[in-house]
Amino acid sequence: MSVVARVRAVMSRLAGLGRRADDERAMREEMQFHLDQLTRRHITAGLPPDEAQRRARIEFGGIVGHEEAARDALRSRFVEDLIRDLLYGWRSLCRHPAFALTAVWTIGLGIGAAVTVFTIVDSIFLRPLPVPGARRLVTISFRRPNGREEWLGSHGASLIRARATAFDAVVAHDSREVLLVSAHGVASERFGAFVSPNYFDVLGVRPYRGRFFFASEDSVPDRDAVAVLGYDLWRTQFGADPAAVGEHMQVRGHDVTIVGVAPPGFIGISVGGAPNDVWLPTMMLGVTDDACIGQIGCRDAAALARLAPGATLSQAVTQLRAMSRELNAMAFERDTLPRLAIAPLRGMATDQRSDYAALAPLLGGIALLLVVIACANVGGLLVTRGLSRAPEVALRFSLGADRGRVIRQLVTENLLIGGAGGALGILLSVGSVRALMGFFTKDSEGFPHFFYLSLDGRVLLFTVAASLATVALFGVLPAVTTSRVALARHAAQSRIAGRGRGRLVLMGAQVALSLTLLVGAALMARSFLALMHRQRFDVSHVALIRLRPEQVHYDPARAQRFLRAVVSRIEGMPDVTGVAFGRGIGFLWDEGPITMPVGRTPSDTALTAYTRFVSPRFLATLRIPLLRGREFTSDDDAGAPRVTIVSESVARELWPDGSALDHTVVLGGKAFRVVGVAADFAVHPITSPAPPIVLVPFWQNAFQPEVDARLAVRVRGDPAAALAGFRRAINEIDPVVPVTELMPLTDQVRANYTAVHLGAVVLLVAAGVALFLTGLGLYGVIAYIVERRTREIGVRIAIGATSFTIVALMLRQGLTATLVGGAAGIAIAALSTRLLAAYLVGIEPGDRVAFIAAALGVTAVALFATYLPARRAARVDPMMALRVE
Amino acid sequence: MLGEFEQLILMAVLRAGDAAYGIPIHAELLRRTGRDPSLASVYKTLERLEHKGFLSMRTGAPTPERGGRRKQLYRVTNAGQKELRAALGAIRRMASGLDVGLEPS
Amino acid sequence: MTEAAQRDDVLQGTLDMLVLKALSLEPMHGWGITERLQQWSRDVFQLNQGSLYPALYRLESQGFVRSEWKTTEHNRRARYYALTAAGRKRLAAERRTWQRASHAVNLILAVEAP
After folding, report:
1. Model pTM greater than 0.90?
2. Pick from A247, A258, A262: which is nearest to A208 by CA?
3. A37, C49: Cβ pair inside 8 Å?
4. CA A482/CA A476 separation, integer angstroms
C-alpha cells in the first residue's frame, strides 16, 4: 500500500495536482469522523453498536459516493481520473496476480503469433525497399503463359529508358552473380551485381569512399573494367585501407580497377537472396558465363524503374505496351507470347518466392489457430473475472458509486491487460521472427540470405489494433454486462453465470485444435529426424571444403599436386581423424552427381548409377559401412587397373546371387573390377529408396583428368571452429586457389531440409503454446466450477464423501471435455495431415506413432491441468463452504 | 528436324540425368565430344529445344542455391526422345557399312 | 439541464445559504453543522448528508468559507470551517433573495378562489 501511495503521490505531482493525495486522505478522514459521530448518537439513543453503525452507514449513505460526488463537483479533470483509474486497475491486478499474468501472457502469445506471421509475410511479399522513394519503384519483366517470369534484358532497359516518359529512371541489374574475387592474395566467392550507373542514385546511396560509375563507363561492352566494393569486403579483404580505391583486383580472372566503396549497411536489393559484395557495370557482364550482350534473345539483366512524379502506373503500362513488340523481339529469339509485366517492387523478387509461397499459408494457419485459442481463453478468463467481481461491484454501487465511473475503471483495468499483452506480444514476435527466418539464412552452398525483418510502423499499428480489438471484444463487454449484473443484485449471479458448461465445450474445442497441431508437429519431427539419419552415415563432426583450381585454370597435373599437398597437410593437423575427398558436381547433397549406365556387359545399360570419384578411405572417414571387400588405396592410381566399389543395391541388382566381388562391371563404357561393396547411402535429398551408387578412385582419372575436389574432413571437436584453420593451411600451400563452401556438413544437410526442419520447429512451438494455453484454460474452468460448487462439495464432504470421490467428480468434468475434444482432434488431424504429405519423407501422414504420442501428450496435460484444481476441491472445509454467502 | 548441336545437347541432357542444367550439360559435351561451346550458346539451345517441345524445364532445389539463383533443370520429353531416335536412326542407317574408321566407343 | 439537476440547483442554493448561516456564529465541522441545522429547524430538516460535503468544498473553492484542522474536545481530529468576509456578504445577499422569493410565493398562495 505504501508503495502505491508513494507512486500516486509522485504521479499527482507530475500531473501538477499538488495536494491531491493529502486531499484524498483528508476527505476520508473528515467523513469518517462524521460517520463516527452519527454512530455515537445512535448508541447514545440506545442502539447496540453493530446496529448503530449500520444505521449510521445507511443514513450517511455511501462514503464512496460522497467522495466521488464531492470530487466531481469540484474538479473533474480527465487526466487525473485516468491516472487514478490506471493505478486502481494496477492495484486490483496486483491483488490477483494469477489472473493478471495468465491474461497478459495469453494475449501476448496470441498477438505474438499474429505479429510474427504479419512481419514475415510483409517482408516476403509486401515490404518496399528501405530506400527513399521506394514506393515508386516498379519491376518490369516478361511473363510466360505458364506463369514463369523472365528478365527484360539490359538492352530492353535501355530502350525503355530512352522512350518511356512515365519513368524518371530505369535501372538494369543482375544482382545474383557468384563471382570469384581475388585481391591481396586471397580468393573468395562473392555475390556480385552488374548494374547501370544510375542504380546507386535511384537507391539513394552515396559512395563511402571514391565514386560510383560514370554513365560513360556503361556504354561499351567489356571496355571499362571498374568495380565498387561493398563495405564489408573492403573492411575484411582490404583492411579498410583508403588506398584500396584505385587498386586492382581480379574478378573471375579479369583485372578490374576499384573506383569506390559503398557505405556500410548497403547490401544490394536481392531480398531473400545473398548480400552483394561487389558491383560492376552491366557492360562487364562478359566476365560471367552468361554473357550475351548485343545478341538477340539476351535477357541478361532485370529491369527496375521509378515512376516520375505525377506519372501513374497506368500511364506507364500504356507506354510500355506501345513498345512491347520491340522489347519482345529483343528478348526472345522466336515469336513467343510472353506479356510485359509491371509490378511495384515489394518484398522478394517474384521468381524467387515459390519456396516461401508455401510458408505463408502454413504460418498463417497456425497463427490463426493460436489466436483463436488465445481469444477463447481470454474471453473465458475475462468473463469469469467479471462475474467473480460482481459482488464487489454490486457493493460499490450500493455504496453510491457512480455507474459510469465504475465501468470506466473496469475498462481501464482491461486496457492495462491489453496494453501489457500487446507489448509482450511484440517482444515475443521480435525473437520468433528472427528465429524463423534464421532457417533460411544459409543455403546449402554456404551463401547467406537476407531479409528486412525490422518492426516497422505498420507492424506496430497492427499490434495496437489487435490489442485494442482483443480488449474491446473481451474486456468491455464483460465490463458493461458486469455492471448491469451487479445492479441486478448478484443474487441472480448463479443463474446468469451458468454452470461453466459453455466453457467446457470451448475447452473441448481447444483440446481438439491442440491435438491437431501436436500430431502435425510429431509427424514433421519424425520426418526430420529420419531425414537427418537416413544418409546412413555419421554427419556430425565433418567439415566440408571445396577447392577450385579449375577457376584459376590450373592444369590437372598441377591441380592434383596441390590437392595431394593439401590432403597430407590437413591430415597432419591436430584433431583431424580423417580426410576424404571426391569430385562431382555435387558432393553429397547437391542436385546430383554424374550418372552413368552400369551393367555386367557393355550393352547392359538398364541400370543407371550415381558415380562418385572418391579418395582412399572415403568410406571409413564418412563412416559408411563397408560390407565386403576393401576400400581404395593410394595404389589405385592412374597406372593401376581400374577398380570400383559398388553400393549394396547395385550389387544386388547385377549379381543377385551375391557374388559381386571380383566381377567386372562396365561403367560408362569402361571395364572396372569390383573390389568392394558398400552399404547404401543417400546422395539425393528426397529419394526414398537409396539410389544405386558406384565409387571410382579419384586418382585413377578414369574418365577425365580430375581437377576440382571437395573435401570432407572428420574432426574430433566442433567442425565449425576448425574451418578457419583449414583455410589458413590451404592458403599457405597455395594462396591463389579459391577455397569455397567451407561449412560443417550438418549445415549443408540442414539447408537441404529447410522446409521440413522449419515446419517441424514451427509446429512444435505452436503445439506447445496451444497445449499450454489449453492447459491454462482447463485449469481455469475447473477451478471456476469448483468455486461455484463449493457449497455442494462442502455438503458432500460433510455427509462422508472421500477426497478421492470429490477429485474424481471434478476430474470427470475435465476428462469428458478432453476425451470428446481429443476424439474430434484425431478426426481433424487424420483429415488435415494430408496437407503435410509433401514434407514427410519415410513417414505416412497417418503414422500411428505420431498420433499416439500426440494423444498421450494432450491427455497428460489435460489431466494435470484438471487435477490441480480438483485436488483443491477435495480440501474444501465443509464448515467454511457452508458458511459462504 | 534437329540440328547437330541440338542432337548433342539432347543426348547430354539424357546423360546428365538429375543434374541436367547448364554447367553439367556443358561438361558432358566437353568430356564426350571435346567441344567447348560457350555456356550462353548451351543455354540458348536448351531454351530453343524447350520451345520446340523436346525438353521440359523445372527450377531445381528445394532450397534456393547460388545465393538465390536457382538452377534450371531440363528433361527430355517423349517428343524429344522420338525426334532424337529418328535423327540417330537416320545417321546409323546412313553409316552402316560405310568404312570411315568408326569404332565402338 | 435535466429536471433533477435543476432541482439540485435550487436546493443547492438554499443549502449553501443554510450552511453559511450555520457557520455565521462560529466555526464548526461538518457534523456540527448537521446537528446545528437540525436543532435550529426544530428537527424539521434532516440534512441530506450526501450534499453537505460537496457544498462545503464548493463554498471553500469559491472563497466563502475557509477550513482548518483542529482537535475536538474528544481528542479527535476534525476539519473546521469558518465564514470569510466574502462569505458574510454572500450570506446577506442570499438572505435577501430568499426573502423576496418566499414573499412572492406567499402572495401567490394567498390568492383565494373566487
Report:
1. no
2. A262
3. no
4. 10
